[in-house]
Amino acid sequence: MPGRAPRIHALAVSVALALGGCSEPAGSRSEPTPSEPSPGPAPAGCRDYSTLDVSQLPPLEGGPHAALLDQVWRTVLDKHFDPTLGCTDWPKLREIHARKVAEAHSDAEAYAQINAMLDELGQSHTRLFAPSAAEDTVGPASPELVVRWVGDELVVVSSHADGPQGPVLPGAALLAINDVPVGPLVAEVRERYGQRALPRMIARAVAARLSCEREGQVKKLKVTNPDKDQRNAVRVVPCVTPPGERITLGNLRDVPTRVEHRMLGDGVGLLRFNVWMLPMVKQMEAALAEMRAQGMRALVLDLRGNPGGVGAMAVPVARMLLDHDGSLGTMRFRDFEQELHVEPGDDPFVGPVVVLVDESTASTSEIFVVGMRDLGRITVIGGQPSAGAALPSVIEQLPGGALLQTVVADYRSPNGTVVEGQGITPDVRVEESREAFVGGRDPVLEAAREHLAGALAALPTPPAADTDGDATAPEPPTAEGSTGAGPG
Description:
- This protein is of the alpha+beta class.
- Among the domains are: 145-238, PDZ domain (Pdz3 Domain); 245-392 and 404-457, Alpha-Beta Complex (2-enoyl-CoA Hydratase, Chain A, domain 1), CATH 3.90.226.
- Helix content is 24%, strand content 23%.
- It contains ten helices and 23 strands.
- The strands form seven sheets. Strands 13-14-15-18-19-23 form a six-stranded mixed sheet, with helices on both faces. Strands 1-17-16-22 form a four-stranded antiparallel sheet.
- β7 (173-177) and β8 (180-181) form a beta hairpin.
- α2 (66-79) runs antiparallel to α3, α3 runs antiparallel to α4 and α5 packs across α6 (198-210).
- It is globular, with a radius of gyration of 24 Å.
- The two termini are 46 Å apart.
């Protein structure tokens, strides 16, 4: 497909990855464990469509998009993990939305109606993307800032954007983009997705409107400055292309990948990455090794804004932090189940770990977080629950170039927690306000550092060496652990 790829909900994997790739390469020690088929009976009053005779379906109304709707409908029928399709009347929905598609006056209207049919399932990771992706981002570049829904307004929570009129300051409230007020957009998103999904979906919508076709173009922003006078200001700021290696895997194309790390002081390291793609694992291993060599005794893993990616990556990342066997949960396909089994790494980091989440922490990120929390390995800190979008899916290209993302499995955490539609509530919920971000502050990271300071203080102190020099007492494992330590 020429040009850019659409912004696709992540945990998107090819069929091969979904069935056998949520593990390390063949011969490694951490492969997901398939189990016998256990689909169970359909709920009372719900029809099982796995035996539906599609040849008996009535023909659809004509029009240039009828075949596309029918193909999407049949693909979901064949691949969805739930043969009842959420207890919907799937054949009836085919007829209803086919009539609306036949009345569409443009490709955009037709795609919107087909997606309305998919929305009837009430699940994430199910969407049809037009070949041009015109409904989504303009391009890969954008101003150097992050906007989130905080309190009851769009707030610039971090910014390096600067222009002739001055910088866009953290703590500013976003009022308009290119002279278009954001208020109507907020109202539209709230009406379509509801209040719970508003923080995540409005952040995505604003990011799309901030995007530029290429680096060097500019965006005109109207903001309320975070000064005591709360004055409105206009800033014209350039768009830049995100740094990092671009990776293509299947229909996930030209994805910019970034792994960042640094020491925060007091023995605490920070690791942040923007998406889950397998080639990034080596960079993460190197980052952890470097920080451990610098004296890291506790880790902050920042998954805020991380939308997910390839589910296979969750297992090797978990191995870096586990010194015993564990499971990140189970994916239930229509005909079998697959456990995300993890065996310990060769030299895992076993000091205290905090994971940061927000409303845009989704998909693979959520599976990793809830799995590691169920194992008792991490503390979750954030200002908002995570996205609640954690269903394994596949992406395939249809004739004509459209991309269809389809859910193929359900997910349950090791303790049986359902993340889809619920999200992950932080163990430590941080009250966020516009004022908290003024001056470049990060209230969630500050809370993580405070938590880890307490965790490190509670660790036992190794005994001092024998002053007579005859012998030393055996030294217990440090916060970083040692080879062979722990139940693994």
